[in-house]
Structure formats: C-alpha cells, structure tokens
Write a structure and sequence with these properties.
Elements: H1 2-17, H2 24-42, H3 49-69, H4 72-85, H5 96-113, H6 119-130, H7 142-211, H8 222-234, E1 241-248, H9 251-258, H10 260-277, E2 283-288, E3 291-297, H11 301-318, E4 325-332, H12 339-356, E5 360-363
Parallel strand pairs: 4-5
Antiparallel strand pairs: 1-3, 1-4, 2-3
Helix pairs in contact: 1-2, 2-3, 2-7, 3-4, 3-5, 6-7, 9-10, 10-11
Length: 370
C-alpha cells in the first residue's frame, strides 16, 4: 500500500501543478506499475515474462475500467489489491504467447474506446505498451527488464513534459487573454467615461443655455446678453463691435388698453422680426420688460446705424399688434471698455430718440459719423 501512496501522491502532485485532472489516473497507474516492478526487480526478485505481461494486462484492464467508471478511489484500491493479490494466481498452463495475445487484444480495445480522447494521450499509451513486446526479441534478464522499464520511464517523462508544455501554453494563452480582457475593459471604461463626460457636458450646456434663455421670447435673457458683451470685450480677436439698445414705444399703453396677453404677443412678434434679420455672428437678448439688446460683431457706428434702420423698418411694418421701437447705439472701444459704459452711451441714444418723437435711432457716442 505504501507503493500505491507514492504513485498516487506523484500523480496527484503533477496533475495539480498542471491543473490537468484528465491525466491524473493515467499518471497514477503508470507510476504505480513502474514503482511496483522496479521494487521487485531491484529487490532481487526475478520477474518472469509472464508476470511482467500480467502487470501490463492488469494496467490496461484498469485503464479500461477507469474509462467507464471514472472513480479514482475505486480503481486505485482495485489496482493495489489486483497487483498484490493476483500475482501468484496465474494458471501455469497460460503461456507467454497467450498472455501476449490477451495484452494485444486489450491494447486494441483500449485504443478503440479512447478514440475520442486526445490524440497525444492515445499515442503515449500505445508506445508505452508496445515497449513490452521487446521481450519477444531478447533473452529475459533483469537487465532487459530494467532497460524496458527505463524506456517506459522515458515515455512517461515525455508524457509529463508534454502535459507541462501544454499547461505552460495554456497559462500563456490565459495570460494573453487576461491582458486583452484588461485592455478591453480599460478601453471600455475610458469610452464609457468619455461618453458620460460628453453627456454631462451636453446636459450642463443645455442647462446653462436654458438658464440664459428668456422663456417668453426664447431669446437670451439679461444675464445671457450681458455675458455675450463681456465675451466680446475679452476676445482679443474682436477689435470693434456695436450695441443696439431699444424698447417698444408706448408699450405700457398696449398692456393697459389690450391686456398683458397682447403685450406678450407684441414681445414675441418683436423677437421673430429681429431673428429674421439677425446675422449668425450677432446676438440678441431681452434686457428686461420691453427692453432689448442686439450685439453687432465687427460693426462700426456707421454700419450699426444702417442695421438699426433696417430693424426699425422691419418691426414697424410687420409687428402684430402694430408698434414701433426706439433705439440707441454705442460702439466698442471708443464709447466704453466695460458693459456699463457701453450701455450708458446706448441708453443716451435711446433717450434722445424718444425726445425726437420715437420710431428711430440715435447715437450719442464719441465717434464721428458721416
């Protein structure tokens, strides 16, 4: 039983190192058979050819049984009892030729039932048992037995080496697969993070845009339009721009005579008319009440006055209900370098327009207009 434990431990150690339980029993059987025969041979007990065939037949039978039962504990016990107890029970009338014939039949049967197993396992089993046939060609001595056992040990060594090599290949593939999975995971995390970042940026942008939009007219609100003026002032690429500051003439009377709903309609009508004329690079916003600001990028005072005239005509001819606007103009940087300074000059122009009779525009800044 000590020999069984040695063989079992060796096979268990190798199969667990390589994580290959499929080969556990084959290794265990091989190791036990070789240790058992070497123990008898080296111990001075001459092993007959018939007994040697008996060991081989028993080992093949054990592999066949294990293939069907697949119970390592049962087959291990069967191996130990069979080899130890049946050694002296071989009938004398069974010749070496009979034993070899049985060995051959069982070997063929083993190959047939293992035809679906891995090819390298079948090949090692076949070569392992074929070495036994060398006893047919040489005089039977302990040296011959040891030589055959040495060959069998070499085959088992190659078998173990093959298992380890396969295990190393499998480990390498698993490592590569793990690296690929980690890289893919990192890429997915980065892509997901990027998507979330973009999504959050869009959400923030929409929220910011909503916060700067006037609900009634869908234009920029006071913070939005004043923020655009600050951006223009801080942008070194913009050398000049103009501000149109205006309101609806007699807007209070519209609310008083027709109600606030009509007043709101007037504000929306004004926004529609302005947006229909506004350039893409310009900005338009509601400063408060009926007061509005149009920001004209790269426009001089003279250009701003021509644009103001177009807005005045457009609104007076297309407003619903009918109304007119009064406008004041200021130009950066001569009329001011801050938002307050620019609005102050534009408000002076608006006031001057009201004094002249409304429905027009005026400029009260420092630029000369020809």
């Amino acid at each position: 039983m000590n020999l069984l434990l040695i063989a079992h431990s060796g096979a268990f150690f190798i199969s667990n190192i390589t994580n290959n339980k499929e080969n556990n029993f084959i290794l265990k059987s091989f190791l036990f058979s070789i240790i058992f025969i070497l123990y008898n041979t080296l111990g001075g007990n001459f092993i007959s050819v018939r007994l040697f065939y008996h060991y081989e037949i028993f080992l093949i039978a054990l592999l066949i049984i294990n293939y069907h039962i697949n119970n390592h504990i049962f087959t291990s016990v069967f191996l130990a009892i069979g080899l130890i107890m049946t050694t002296d029970l071989i009938p004398l009338y069974i010749t070496n030729t009979n034993m070899l014939t049985v060995l051959t039949i069982l070997l063929v049967f083993l190959m047939l039932i293992m035809r679906k197993s891995k090819k390298y396992i079948r090949n090692y089993l076949l070569v392992y048992f074929l070495t036994t046939y060398l006893l047919q060609f040489y005089a039977v001595t302990n040296e011959i037995f040891l030589t055959i056992m040495l060959l069998k040990m070499i085959i088992i060594g190659l078998f173990v080496q093959n298992i380890i090599k396969q295990y190393q290949t499998k480990v390498k593939k698993n490592q590569e697969r793990l690296i690929n999975l980690e890289e893919n995971f990192e890429n997915k995390v980065k892509m997901e993070a990027k998507k979330r970042t973009i999504s959050l940026e869009k959400i923030n942008e929409k929220a910011l845009q909503k916060a700067k939009t006037d609900k009634l007219t869908s234009t920029l609100n006071k913070d939005g339009i004043l923020g655009k003026i600050k951006e223009f002032i801080q942008d070194n690429r913009i050398k000049s721009f103009s501000v149109l500051f205006f309101d609806i003439d007699d807007f209070k009377s519209i609310n008083d005579n027709y109600g606030h709903n009509v007043g709101d309609k007037a504000l929306r009508s004004l926004a529609i008319n302005v947006n229909s004329l506004k350039r893409v690079e310009d900005h338009f916003g509601r400063y408060g009440g009926d007061e509005f600001i149009i920001l004209l990028k790269d426009a001089t005072t003279a250009q701003a006055m021509m644009i103001a005239d177009r807005y005045k005509n457009k609104i007076s001819n297309n407003s619903s209900p009918e109304f007119t606007i009064s406008m004041g103009i200021s130009t950066y940087p001569n009329d001011g370098r801050t938002v307050d300074e620019l609005l102050r000059i534009a408000d002076l122009g608006l006031y001057a327009t009201k004094e002249k009779g409304k429905n027009g525009f005026a400029y009260k800044g420092v630029n000369k207009v020809y």
